[in-house]
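Deliverable D5.2: sample structural annotation.
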Amino acid sequence: MDRKPFQLGDIVEMKKAHPCGTNAWKVIRMGMDIRMKCTGCGHSVLLPRSRFEKRMKKVLVQADPSATE
């Protein structure tokens, strides 16, 4: 399986939409688990990395590498 590259701060599109209606999530924590925040309602979700990689479609907006959060 191909690994889709993503990094901290990216806005990613998931296969299924969130109940609030949006499909875009911001990656806010990376490690064994990935924490992401819904860009529509602000709800935060923690997923194991393997499940996140299976459910991620593509990176919509790449994070600015020079910006630090």
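Annotation notes: The chain has a mean pLDDT of 88. Residues 11-61 form one domain.
The annotation will be released with the project's public dataset once the embargo ends.
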